[in-house]
From TrEMBL:
PANTHER family: PTHR47328, RUTC FAMILY PROTEIN YOAB. The lineage of its organism: Bacteria, Pseudomonadati, Pseudomonadota, Alphaproteobacteria, Acetobacterales. Gene3D superfamilies: RutC-like. This is Translation initiation inhibitor. It comes from Komagataeibacter medellinensis (strain NBRC 3288 / BCRC 11682 / LMG 1693 / Kondo 51) (Gluconacetobacter medellinensis). Pfam families: Ribonuc_L-PSP. It comes from the Bacteria. Belongs to the RutC family.
Amino acid sequence: MSKIIRTEPNPILSKVVEYHGFLFTQGFVARDLSADITAQTKDILAQIDEALELHGTDNTRLLQAQIWLKDINDRDALNAVWSPWLPKGGAPARACVEAKMAHPDVLVEIMLIATK
């Protein structure tokens, strides 16, 4: 049976769960919640890069993304950061929806499935 690897587990979640070469991430939010949508998105993508690298992979191996926005009108600003971050021809399947966030200053949250 394959081992399940949990990165930074706590009582309610793990940052990343790895199983059979698949990576399932937590929903990443920005560390600086006073930042605008552009800065929050850049910070989240940097955190994702770090998490993927820790597991021996990168954003060329993305399979699926789930993105929640506090305000769907921020979608263009999100995409202005998201699109250049993606490898050419390597966009994952994606959902992007407006949602009530757990904290009022969270403007975007991103969760991914990737592979090694």
